[in-house]
Write a structure and sequence with these properties.
Rossmann fold; five-stranded parallel β-sheet; 22 helices; 45% helix; binds pyridoxal-5'-phosphate
Length: 496
Amino acid sequence: MDIIYQSTRNAAEKATASEAILKGLASDGGLFVPTAIPTFTTTLAELAKMNYQQVAYEVMKLFLTDFTEEELKNCIARAYDDKFDTAEIAPLKEADGAHYLELFHGATIAFKDMALSILPHLLTTAARKNNVQDEIVILTATSGDTGKAALAGFADVPGTRIIVFYPKDGVSPIQEKQMVTQRGANTTVIGIHGNFDDAQSGVKAMFNNKELAATMQAKGFRFSSANSINIGRLVPQIVYYVYAYTRLLADGTLKDGEKLNVVVPTGNFGNILAAYYAKCAGLPLGKLICASNDNKVLYDFFQSGVYDKNREFILTTSPSMDILISSNLERLIYKIAGEDAEKNAELMNALNTKGVYEITPEMRERLADFAGGYATTEQTAEVIQNLYKKTGYIIDTHTAVAASVYEAYKKQSGDDTKTVIASTASPYKFTRSVMTAIDAKYDSMGDFELVDELSRLSGVKVPQAIEDIRSAEVLHKTVCDKTEMQATVEKILGIA
Ligand SMILES: *Cc1c(COP(=O)(O)O)cnc(C)c1O
């Protein structure tokens, strides 16, 4: 069956998978969604015998139906190779009764690598398939991890350029260092005076600017997005839920068909949406537990049915989740609106103009797959310390938000279904927050001293990504105001 995509805001805007990957965002500002979610054609027992790359093919072929087998397998082989420091790609670790799915074994030690190591290959393959000659300009706003993962994925990929905007004071020192030391003649990294939502709004505005698109086209450029709104990122993320389930099936933890809950530390709603799509495609998942930090706009939404971004933006120790507009939620809203693009467009328009919308009671009923929770910065630190003391396992701050929400969920609901916690970053990426959570005395140590101390405590070798930045030179120093983003892009491309 061919899967066709359409905009969440206009049923008439349709695209094949490769066209949707090339465009990123639909021309009306909507997001591409499959008009029907495919179901698995391989049994769980069969998938349990396959390795990561094979599972990836079985899952991705269902969604990316206009790619040939050779094209898709080629993309998968080039993405999930020895850039990952384990052949398992996404290993599971059991600690204190939960199964941590470690999604941080790629080049930049955060879960964004799971999708961004394959997106450049999907995108360049899609360009070839559609006879696109233009140079593809990847424009990305990042809360820290996407930026580096996208830079690493696209650096020196022929036919592409990548420009990354990040909030100058809103990412961790290691995240910033990782980005500003990025090599590759086609890479640009820019700090903005503003927060992540400012960066994301600025990028969206450029995508929606028809005049800019025309200028770009005249000069042989076209924009595409590496943000998690691109289905070329969403689809590869479905894979690891299937992989996790079938590993637990293979080792006897789960019986075939037994429900598995997942807890996902959430920001832009991409990761948890992938779990939802996995469930819709037939994976026996139970509750999808959406974990937020102090920026608990999603928690409030699941509680009340009101999405309200009009609130204070709080900087937390889990910066990749410091987000008030969760872009991918739109795909869920579209689904629970009964796949009604018009109704979804109305709500998104309300979000744009008033910063708030409310869903109907009927729509709320369709959210039964989800549970929401949040953890404060203190609770996050507590969980890191407790888990370390109890088991010796050290988790990062984002994963700790999920672990804290999981504890609370279990207590409140009495639901003791087996559970996977998406572990979205290596503790090495947020060393200071992690180490001071374990013991306040570590705050006096330098960043790299802390790295060595973390290695001593956890018994986990310092990842190559961290070794690489110890001595790397800063190559990107541009900082601009949030109002100057477009002018900066025009200057970089020489189209001003
Ligand atoms: C991006 C990110 C998240 C949030 O994922 P979404 O798909 O945006 O919800 C959580 N943790 C880490 C470490 C991340 O990098």
